[in-house]
Design brief:
- The chain is of the alpha+beta class and about 425 residues long.
- The chain is built from eleven helices and four strands.
- Helix 3 (about 50-60) crosses helix 6 and helix 6 (about 110-180) runs antiparallel to helix 7 (about 185-220).
- The chain has one domain (about 45-85, about 115-280, about 315-420): Outer membrane efflux proteins (OEP) (Up-down Bundle).
- The protein has helices at about 1-5, 15-25, 50-60, 60-70, 70-80, 110-180, 185-220, 245-255, 255-275, 310-380, 385-420, and strands spanning about 85-90, 100-105, 280-290, 295-305.
- It has a four-stranded antiparallel sheet, with no helix packed on it.
């Protein structure tokens, strides 16, 4: 029994770290690590989306706090492996009272321990799988905040183009005013448009600062105040795989789905353990001083008769937990399929929108804007016509920026929904 109690095999968080690395391609920092950045990543260069995910998995404090919770499940497994200590009762001989010694050992643990350990081990495996999902979520959040920063920086560039365009229109307007071709009213309108474009640029600049702070937070660098920049990679227009293949892969690889399956096994093992607790039996060794015969020793048993209490309440609760875990697993499968389908549809929508704007909208708008400026300079069209053309062009440029950002977000969501890169 002593050898059995000492033969404790406790899993560590290594399996969780390996699962995160397998699904994201990025490592999790060792427990004793103090470096805020993983090897090969430097903040001196703008971060691409993969670098942002790597830093988040390496340094995000919430993820590291989540990973630390596996120690609780490991402690429960240690407790499940331990045997209760024997109990010693001794009555000291005083006066006419004889000496008595009674040793109790909880014998029911011999058949309960295996079921208890199985339930604790299943719970530990469940926690490990759920923490892998936390790693996927951290990588997804880092990619989303990176996409937000790239989008905000691109909108600033469009805002500057808008200011430059309004400035050129204003210069043309003032030149025509000096030549006596137009009235002061058109000049006031041009100045108002330039002021509005500058105000919009200021808002875009603030959006960049907000996006930087959000990216810092997702990377775990909010306190360091290090300079964080995002490098924009071209938005991918590669069509996603078929929905059936993606759902099949998600059902096979999603860590939270594996955790839900393990929750059913955990509940079933706990139900078996609760049923084994109906009979409580203790082995006894009794020693008693009997007159001139000295101390006599003999074995015995202590049995709790299951007449009124047969552990019905905890057994019913364990059975209900099995039912709950089974239904939650089925509900999660539905949600996984929905998340994959939604992310894939969003990716296709963003890709189609980007292609349409680039190919069908931008070329004619660019030609129309250049022609309108030239005609306005010659006095052939009114200022309002130039303004409408320039607004349409800048709106289309913003639509391109937003569509590219939507593609990056949808890709991050799709990878997380499927459960792997």
């Amino acid at each position: 029994m002593l050898l059995t109690a000492c033969a404790t095999r406790i899993p560590t968080s290594t399996a969780t770290a390996e699962g995160i690395l397998l699904r994201t391609g990025k490592p999790v920092a060792p427990t004793a690590n103090k470096a805020p950045l993983p090897p090969g990543v430097s903040l001196e260069q703008p971060l691409v989306a993969d670098d942002a995910a790597a830093v988040a998995l390496w340094n995000n404090p919430q993820l590291r706090a989540d990973l630390a919770t596996i120690g609780l499940a490991e402690a429960d497994l240690i407790e499940a492996n331990l045997l209760r200590n024997p109990r010693l009762d001794m009555l000291v001989p005083i006066g006419a009272k004889p000496f008595e010694l009674l040793i109790n050992f909880p014998a029911e643990l011999l058949w309960q321990r295996g079921r208890r350990v199985a339930a604790s081990r299943a719970a530990l495996d469940q926690v490990a799988q759920s923490l892998i999902q936390n790693g996927l979520n951290a990588a997804r959040d880092a990619r989303l905040t990176h996409a937000d920063l790239v989008q905000a920086a691109a909108r600033v560039e469009v805002g500057r183009q808008s200011v430059d365009l309004r400035q050129r229109v204003l210069e043309l307007t003032e030149a025509r005013l000096r030549a006596g071709d137009i009235s002061e009213l058109e000049t006031v309108a041009a100045r108002t448009e330039r002021a509005a474009a500058r105000e919009q640029l200021v808002r875009f600049d603030h959006d960049v600062q907000i996006a930087i702070e959000r990216l810092r937070a997702s990377l775990g660098l909010a306190l360091e105040r290090a300079t964080v920049r995002a490098a924009a990679a071209p938005a991918s227009l590669d069509p996603p795989p078929a929905i059936e293949a993606l759902i099949e892969k998600a059902l096979a690889s999603r860590p939270d789905l594996r955790a839900a399956e393990m929750a059913i096994a955990t509940a079933a093992n706990r139900a078996k353990w609760e049923r084994s607790r109906i009979l409580l039996l203790a082995a006894q060794l009794s020693s008693k001083e009997v007159g001139a015969n000295g101390v006599l020793t003999g074995p015995g048993v202590s049995l709790e008769l299951p007449i009124f209490n047969r552990n019905q309440g905890l057994i019913a609760r364990a059975d209900a937990e099995v039912e709950i875990a089974s239904r939650q697993y089925l509900a999660l499968k539905q949600r996984v399929a929905f998340e994959v389908a939604e992310a894939r549809a969003q990716l296709e929508q963003a890709q189609d929108a980007l292609c349409k704007v680039r190919e069908d909208v931008m070329p004619p708008l660019e030609r129309a804007t250049a022609l309108a400026e030239d005609q306005y300079k010659k006095g052939e069209v009114a200022f309002l016509f130039v303004l409408e053309q320039s607004r349409a062009l800048l709106d289309a440029q913003l639509r391109i920026v937003d569509a590219e950002a939507a593609i990056r977000r949808a890709q991050a969501q799709l990878e997380r929904s499927v459960g792997s890169r």
